[in-house]
Amino acid sequence: MICIQIISDQSVDAWRPGILFLIKDIIPNLESLHFVNDLKKSGLLVIGHVNVGEGMDSADHQSQKRKLDFWVDFVKENKIKAFVEHTNAIDTRRGSEQLLR
Questions:
Q1: Would 94 be classed as within a structural domain?
Q2: In what order do the strands lie in the sheet with 16-22?
Q3: Does residue 4 lie within any of the structural domains?
Q4: Residue 58: helix, strand or coil by DSSP?
Q5: Which helix (H) or strand (E) is 6 found in, with range?
Q6: What's the CA angle centered on 88, arms 85 and 89, to 5 degrees?
C-alpha cells in the first residue's frame, strides 16, 4: 500500500511528495522501493510495517527489533533515502494511521 501526501509551498514548481510505503517484507519489494525512491524527488519517504496483534512479549520485541535493524541496514546498503518505521496495532488500518502521523 502506498499513501502519498503532496506538500507544496504554494508553488507548482516546489511540490514535494510525502510517501508512506507499507510493506510486509522488504527484500521482495526492492524494485518497488527503488521506484518510489525515484518518485519522491526531494520529498519524504517512510517505509512502514504494521505488526498486527494484541500484546507482545519480550521475545516478540527482540524479534521486531532485529527485523527493524535489518531493514535499516538494507535501506542503507541499497542507497534508498528513507525512514524505516515499524508499529504495533490491532489492525493494519490503525497501524497505518499511526505511521501517517
A1: yes
A2: 2-7, 16-22, 44-52, 83-89
A3: no
A4: helix
A5: strand 2-7
A6: 125
Q: Which domain holds residue 93?
A: 15-100
Question: CA angle, 22 as apex, 68 and 101 as ends, to 5°?
Answer: 85
What digits encode the pLDDT tens for the residues 68-87? 999 999 999 998 888 899 88
Going by the DSSP 8-state scheme, the letter that residue 77 receives in this structure is: H
Q: Is there a domain that residue 1 lies in?
A: no
11-64 pLDDT tens trace: 666 666 778 888 888 888 889 888 888 887 777 888 888 888 876 677 778 888
CATH number, domain with residue 62: 3.40.50.620
Grid cell at residue 41:
524527488
Q: Domain count for the chain, please give it.
A: 1
